[in-house]
Design goal:
Radius of gyration: 20 Å
Oligomer: single chain
Number of helices: 5
Largest sheet: 2 strands, antiparallel
Distance between the termini: 34 Å
Shape: globular
Number of strands: 2
Strand order of the largest sheet: 1-2
Structural class: mainly alpha
Strand content: under 5%
């Protein structure tokens, strides 16, 4: 127990978290708050698709509808996402960092540590689930994959 200036006492929790677990938490937050269609623009090194669309001027009504839709999403809370989506985001980040380090060969293979990376990610994910940082949902019967 430690005393605070206001006289309140609290238990000090000494909890260290690895860098890969921090990335997992960030990815899980982004995946739970953003639709899957935005993953390419968020995690791809090219920023999604290469073809640029011409932006139109928004009308006042569409801006209002967009604001109410954003408010609805905030009120609704985080959504669930499949494990494959989380792994794809992490793989794209790792591939991007490998391309920066070794531009001539940026692919992941058994030699490149892909198997070690996935086992580390799955271990960190189970640790975060056990610590209640990420909650594991029920699997979808149609998809057959676990949702978080």
């Amino acid at each position: 127990m430690r005393k605070v200036e206001g006289g309140e006492a609290f238990d000090e929790m000494d909890f260290h978290i690895s860098t890969s677990a921090k990335y997992l938490l960030i990815f899980a937050f982004l995946a739970s708050r953003n639709p899957a269609t935005l993953d390419a623009s968020l995690f791809d090194s090219t920023g999604g698709s290469d073809n640029r669309k011409r932006m139109r001027k928004s009308s006042g009504k569409s801006i209002e509808q967009k604001g109410s839709a954003e408010q609805e999403l905030l009120m609704k809370g985080p959504g669930s996402f499949p494990l494959e989506r989380l792994l794809a985001c992490i793989t794209s980040l790792v591939e991007g960092s490998l391309e920066e380090d070794h531009p001539e060969d940026g692919r992941l293979g058994a030699e490149g540590g892909d198997i070690g990376l996935m086992s580390d990610v799955l271990l960190q994910l189970s640790t975060l689930c056990n610590a209640n940082f990420i909650s594991k949902g029920e699997s979808c019967p149609l998809e057959g994959s676990t949702r978080y």
